[in-house]
Amino acid sequence: MFKNSLLGLSIFVSITLHSQSSNTVPRIDSLTHLFMENTLHKQQIFLNNEDVLNLTEERFNFLTNSIGTTMPFKFDAAVKTQINYMLNPNSSFLYKACLRKDIYFRVFEEVLDRKGMPQEIKYLSIVESLLSPNAVSWCGATGLWQFMPATGRMMDLQIDGNVDERKDIYKSTEKACEYLQSMHDKFGDWLLALAAYNGGPGNVGKAISRSGGKRTFWEIKPYLPKETQNYIPKFLATAFIMSFAPPIDESTNHLSANEMLVPVKMCCPIDMKYISAVVNINEYEQNEWNSTYKDGIIPSGMENKTIALPYSKAMQLAQWQDSIYQISANAFNPLDYIRYETIAQSYKVKKGQTIAQIADICNVSAGDVKRWNHLKSSKLKVGRTLKIYKSREITMPIAKTPPLGFFFYITEKEGQSMNDICSKFNEIDIERSCEINLINSPNTPIGKGKLIKIFLK
Question: Cβ–Cβ contacts within 10 Å for residue 284, how many?
């Protein structure tokens, strides 16, 4: 267990969502490096798969004791079975988690250290979600720590149409640790706290009573729900393998795992696509780290709005945040200048025509033709006049003058060109816009998520 709780506390107060200080590049830079220097260089023992599969109880106990943890490991047959399963070549269970561990473990370790809890609890998130903030179970449990909606709200996590803080990396970790600490205070044992996290404190309390007052997991195990009986061995096996024999598959590591994840406080509502475009974060990574915000929009009326980014990107965001808000305020949205109106047309049925044929000719659906004309049968009488409704797009003039002399626009799909964006609007100077943005021609594909400037004539 790390011994730098004072350092961890200072970093947490300074850079997490509870911070009241401003976002500055020197602050994020110095604190991040200080944290990494003090927490990321530990001497470890690494075993190969054969070593693990041939473990003796004596060797297992020596290794787990070397961690210096208060987590009560035990070389139980159920733990050994879980270890063998996870090391099976056909099992990809831990490989998926290893793609994310260097990002999320740094967050978990700081919180656990500050609270004086066993560092091995970080492995619980692998059992729960494979370290995925977007994980959703069949019963609706969500996030890295798999909070149910009712539990999340009970723990003061905001869950509504705009935000789901069960997916917030920092807040959900805080609340999961708070809950586990309260269960440890209640039962006096970390494995019982984990059992309560899975099966609920009520089931743990009943199992203690049915066992005659026993107070360890292994003694009350037969009286717990079957899922919880397997949950603790799975956790211990995961913690052991990740501590001494973590799988390595660097070829598929698609996240920026070489940098610490840093939260940057945001002052105002904004569509995160502007942040992604300016600091050059792809859509996958943005959603991976900030899926708290539904539809990718940080809403108004929310306290402690933060964006989580790798260290170097967080520095850019802290430096350029005012510019990003200015870009958002001067954005060009084509839909603001397009409206649609419905026009009615008549179609006279010709001999032999079916509803499907008429729908195809009019470029509408057969179901709509039947609904518009209250047709219960597919048979049509020759000469009957049918009502056909079409939507017509109308382009409105761009009357707004750009305050900066131009608009900003972020491309929405791959292959989008200046013609795709601007050709409907006579007021836009496409040639000049291409020239300023170093785009070869109006038909040149630009790419998705690119920030460009749009000039008027």
Answer: 10
